[in-house]
């Protein structure tokens, strides 16, 4: 799809990548970048519920992020976001992505298999060609200052992934290297 000569509107859900911007804009595509994982770590999102338990303010997260017109994007590069994002944000984020995508638009996501282990590193993906990615390990600000880094929150099985994207028209699974499943969904 990214080889298309028709200009596409692409949403990249990772930290800004000069490689991705260059790859997309050289092909005439419009590129939006939003680092949702970093946004999900904002301390201002942490709130206590009526029982005194800590959680995240999903409404605030969605009011501050993914604020785009409906049916804007042809392609969403979700990368490994669902595996590392706080559980309470995953489904609302996928639902919001569905509404921002054009009918027939595609979303690419990577999911770890159970063999990955809880210390599986979080990567930033840089597009280096139509069939090639460069992976760079990401560290949260906490890890850079000696604290805990980004942690794999859960491992989705195929059924969970199907349920997560149940409103989409199709889903395809591909087994990739390094205990990763590549998932391509179409709105």
Entry keywords:
187 residues; alpha/beta; Rossmann fold; two-stranded antiparallel sheet; 32% strand; globular
Describe this structure in words.
The protein has helices spanning 18-26, 36-40, 58-64, 81-84, 87-100, 141-144, 158-164; strands at 9-12, 30-33, 46-48, 54-56, 73-79, 101-112, 123-129, 132-137, 170-175, 180-186. The protein is of the alpha/beta class and 187 residues long. The protein has a single domain (9-186), classed as Vaccinia Virus protein VP39 (Rossmann fold), CATH 3.40.50.150. The strands form 3 sheets. It has a 6-stranded mixed β-sheet with strand order 2-1-5-6-10-9. A two-stranded antiparallel ribbon has the order 3-4. A two-stranded antiparallel ribbon has the order 7-8. The longest helix is centred in the middle third of the chain and has 14 residues, at 87-100. It starts with 8 loop residues before the first strand and ends with a strand.
